Amino acid sequence: MEQRNGGAADEAFKPVEAGVPLAELEEINRFRILKQPGMRAFQRLMLWGIPLFSLVFNFEVPSRFGAPMLQEQYLGLILILVLGSVFLSVPANSSAPKDSAPWYDLLLLLLSFVAGGYLAIFYPRILNEIGELTPEKIALGALAFLLVMEACRRMSGWWLVLFVAIFVFYARFAYWFPGILHARGISWSKMAVHLYIDPSSLLGTPLSIAATTVVAFILFGQVLYATGGGQFFTDLSMIVMGRFRGGAAKIAVLGSALFGMISGSPVANVMVEGSITIPMMIRSGYRRHVAGAIESVAANGGQMMPPVMGAAAFVMAEFLGLPYAQVAIAAFIPAFLYYLALFVQVDLEAGRMGISRIPPENIPSLAEVLRKGWVFIIPLGLIIYILFFLNMNAAGAGFYATAAALVVTFFRRESRINGKKFMAIIEGTGLTMLELAVICAVAGIAEGIINLTGLAFIFTLFVERLGGHNILLILLLTAIIELVLGLPLPTTAVYVLVALTLAPAIVKLGIPPLAAHLFVFYYAMLSLITPPIATTAFAGATIAGANMMRTGWECMRLAFIAYVIPFIFVFDPLLLLQGPAHLVALAVATATAGTATVGIAIVGYFVRPVGWWQRLLLALGGIGLLIPPGGTIAYGWLINSVSGVICLAIILYEWRARKIAAVTQDALAAKIPA
User: Fold this and answer.
1) How far lies 35's CA from each of 32, 38, 397, 509, in Å?
2) Angle in degrees, 0-180, between the axes of helices 71-89 and 419-453, rounded to the nearest 10
3) What are residue 609's phi and psi, to 5 degrees?
4) Alpha-carbon gap, residue 25 to 13, rounded angstroms
5) What pairs with residue 58 in β-bridges?
6) Averaged over 277-285, what is the pLDDT?
7) What gap in Å lies between CA 12 and CA 272, rounded to an integer?
8) CA separation for the pair 541, 372 (Å, rounded)
9) DSSP per position, 155-178
10) How many CB atoms lie within 10 A of CB 672?
11) Which helix (DSSP H) or strand (DSSP E) does residue 536 occupy?
12) Which of 66, 221, 507, 669 lies deepest, with the highest CB count within 10 Å?
């Protein structure tokens, strides 16, 4: 890193030891470090403010000093910090200065203070005149909208801006549209004020969750990673999996699953874990595109892996009015099946290709790893205890776990964080929050337009007319729409858009709301590994030096089960741990068997190469085993039982054939007639 101002390189932009923002590791060069000492200090203060103000607000510090703060006032402050930091830290284009803020960015910074400051200072007064369209509100509403759109363009590109522009165009000119889309248009002034001050729009659920809850877990992940937690999980995975065939790939699967428990950011997961595991897999004998795909699929699953899921899961809990812990518990079995499918396939691929284990001398000592890393288990256990046993809010769990991580790592010299390093972690957290907060602000604006125009009701009618009352067809349409939306949009944006427009139609057909929203969440997540634009897969391909499209298609093969499971739990919530305990246990057992069987069919190898007709029967039988017996799906018992018999017969046949072949081979080798 280049040195600036005659001193050491700026700590927040250095790797590991300074707490680089994990979600930005793959694109660190797009952020600029201001060269002027005064502006650099101001840039740091803005970024520090994002997590620190969240801490102050979550623990109600203003109220303790007799100055209670409304949530909307706090979000006004967050808008100042986020928008201002974007304009200071992200150049407008490739030709913009990389070490100084031009005049137009300073102007945008000033305007961010105006738009956010008005909310932070005057929102109590605004509540008393909520229906008034005053000139100042109209002007500030238009200003805030344009600032958020420009910040979104800089952070995520034009696609999300274009989607919102289409929504705005419809809201204004709905009277031009025919049929069920025909409606009264909303005036520019009313739209500007509504999107600016309404608590279900810009200041709504997505931005609120990002600024109060998600930031706490980003800070936790930063602290754990900067103190060596990422290396601890990798070493632990190496000890557990390295001694088995295909050890390098299994290390990637387990390591990414563990890292995903604290990260929730798939691309960051790929860049952190993949930089270690992908070269290891390639050296072990995995083809480059397979190695990249294994790590990408494993990393993408971090969004669904409790206890810390992706940001969209926190938004989902708020939309449903459920504790986050309830969402995380429901997501556990699908997440387990996702990783089981991946694990089975990498194991069988290793057997098919003759890929051996990691050499024992390269595997660290368990005693040494636990001696150095046991401290990382405490904060993770604290999160689980607070969320699932104390039933505290998720933000509190994140901040308390962060405090615990700081305390327990202080007693080890190798992981101790000094003041300079801690402030770098705080800055890294703020930097990581920028894109997520901007996306959530844009998602809130989309939510406001949907509520203002009644688009949710219109979409429900449209889906009902298109799919009738055929729930399977409606689910297929929803999945396809999400995969298409996911080409340019991030997971949270896709989830919010579809949850507000299509999920109500699914719920209206009798599907439990939690199952419907988890379905939407899963397909929003899967868009990141689904070609042609598979962000997570392409990150893995870049590290592996592999063809991006080939890696993307390999991701789909490895994650096949993830495309099927959502359809199963929508029809029968037993796999979401909803139902009688004995039926849930039976459903999980048969789904586990079905997942492993489908893995055999996909790879085409068990104890020996499997013929095409056996693979076809195993695939059909495996999917049949995924259907919960004793659930609500018609003939579930029959389908499950017949599928189990077919799969068991083929597996026993393959096992016996392999045993006979081995005996014959031994006999021939000993020159004894068979």
Assistant:
1) 9, 9, 37, 58
2) 110
3) -60, 140
4) 9
5) none
6) 89
7) 16
8) 33
9) HH-HHHHHHHHHHHHHHHHGGGS-
10) 8
11) helix 535-544
12) 221
Q: Both tokens of residue 639?
A: 């389908």
DSSP 273: H
CA distances (Å), origin 207, targets 142, 313, 334: 18, 13, 27
In angstroms, the CA 460 to CA 168 distance is 20
- pLDDT band, very low/low/confident/very high, at 669 (cuts 50, 70, 90): low
Beta bridge partners of 609: 605
pLDDT (mean) for 593-598: 94
Name, in order, each residue with C-beta under 8 angstroms of 55's C-beta and a sequence gap of 6 or more: 399
Structure tokens, 414: 């190798």
Alpha carbon of residue 257 to chain centroid: 12
Q: What is the predicted pLDDT for the residue at 19? A: 37
For residues 21 and 265, the answer to whether their CB atoms sit within 8 Å is no
In eight-state DSSP terms, residue 303 is: G
Tokens of 384: 């689980």
Q: Are 280 and 302 in contact, with CB atoms under 8 Å apart?
A: no
Q: How far apart are CA 82 and CA 391, in angstroms?
A: 30
Instruction: For residue 233, report the phi and psi dihedrals to the nearest 5 degrees.
Output: -65, -40
Asked if the model's pLDDT at residue 95 lies above 90, the reply is no
Q: Residue ranges of the alpha helices (H) in 354-488?
A: 366-373, 377-388, 394-410, 419-453, 455-467, 471-485
How far apart CA 573 and CA 563 sit, in angstroms, is 16
Q: Is the pLDDT of residue 196 over 90?
A: yes
Gap between the Cα atoms of 529 and 62, Å rounded: 43
| Tokens (6 digits) for 247 | 């050890």
- Residue of 314, 324, 312, 301 lying closest to 496 (CA atoms): 312
Pair 251, 242: CB distance under 8 Å: yes
Write the DSSP string, 598-637.
Answer: HHHHHHTBSSSBPPHHHHHHHHHHHHHHHSPTTSSSTTHH
DSSP run (H or E) holding 525: helix 513-526
- Give Cβ neighbours of residue 312 (< 8 Å, ≥ 6 apart): 303, 491, 492, 495, 496, 521, 524, 525
pLDDT in tens, 308-353: 888 889 999 999 999 999 999 999 999 999 999 999 999 998 888 8
Sign (positive/negative) of CA torsion 452, 457, 459, 465? negative
What band does 671 get if pLDDT is binned at 50, 70 and 90?
low
**Could you tell me if 431 and 481 are in contact, meaning their C-beta atoms sit under 8 angstroms apart?**
no
Amino acid at 289: H
Give the lowest-confidence range in 392-406, 544-558, 651-665. 651-665
Q: Which of 425, 245, 269, 466 is nearest to 344 (CA)?
A: 245
Position 100: which residue type? S
